[in-house]
# Entry
Amino acid sequence: MATKRTPRSETNSKLFVLDTNVLMHDPVSLYRFEEHDIYVPIMTLEELDNNKKGMTEVARNARQASRTMDDIVSSHPGDIADGISLLKPSSELASGRLFLQTEMIDQALPAGVPTAKADNQILSVVMFLSERFSPREVILVSKDINMRIKARALGLQAQDYFNDKVLEDADLLYSGMRELPPDFWETHGKEMESWKENGRTYFKVKGPLSADMYVNELVYQDGDKPLHAIVKQRNGPNTVIETLIDYGHQKNNVWGICARNREQNFAMNLLMNPEIDFVSLLGQAGTGKTLLTLAAGLTQVLETKRYSEIIMTRVTVPMGEDIGFLPGTEEEKMAPWMGALEDNLDVLNGGAEEGGGYGGEWGRAATRDLIRTRIKVKSLNFMRGRTFINKFLIIDEAQNLTPKQMRTLITRAGPGTKVICLGNIAQIDTPYLTEGSSGLTYVVDRFKGWPHGGHVTLQRGERSRLADHAADVL
# Structure
């Protein structure tokens, strides 16, 4: 056995042992533990090596994690067994040390636990370190729930990797809306200014609630004189709010579609506003996210000519068993994933035919063909390096994207492009992503208050009474 070394003399700093899935989930996680030390077992390096081949996000992350570790090790001239300071490689983000397993560890696991399994070998390392460095806290960090359960069953400390979580509780996520209290005008209207511009009414109010409001937050007040408005400016205690267009009225229909509730009206105002470049819509199945977005997209592509075409993409995560390789071009391969697009286009085509009178079956077929030429379906796999100019970009099922994937997608937007993210954070199908760490949660939180971004959480399902009841009771 090698001579005993303590990674740090301070017992208040912890020693975190990293599981492979943490590095494959966040390649720069090595810099996320602040003043604490990190220990990487040899089996973690083996598993990184086994997962480095391929073009998947996991393989890219494995390669990036290996490169990050290589940079850290290369920057250290001395013996790596003494630990490598992370202060310089992390640009002072982390002040702890990185330890790599430099000795053979043969810690006896309880009888019946197979020692050949990689997870169990990492557990034996954690057990060994816990005994060697007692009373210092040695904690396993893993995204694998079963791994954490096994660690606790063996009397070891284990945690999930929390650093990527935007929120601990999804209920705290910004909803994009605020109900004004009944006494709002009494408390905020003493020095109120009001004016009209381009058919909209503006109110400049002053009061204590202004400090809590975000730019482009949607505010409402129910009662005899209901108010639906958006926060346009915020300057200290002063706030300018602007009334919204009522898309619930038939005269303001968008491609034959009218908003059926307050949240849908809010969403339509954001989707149709040329000043807003980024919109995120959250909501359970049947709240109308895709239908409203496509209606707004078709109107602005085919009628007002604001955008040249609609580009729609989504993460291809199957709900059940995969159906194997799909034949055809990129668009043909994506077709099975785009059933929601087809369903909504059927509704919109019917609505356009009824509202605009395009001349029966022939007119409907011609409209369908015209729509088809202006909607492109793209795979996420081919997005790197692209720039979309003057496009209406829809990212569907965005809750299955990691924050890094979301950043890659949104940065594709060139001049004149509008990006819309749709999703339901209660339906995440990607392993290791949670409601708190989803890329959709990430962008909603980071974009709140930006003058050219807006968000709405849709509440009421409008699909059918059966779908609403199923969402509540099943």
In short: The two ends are 57 Å apart (CA to CA).
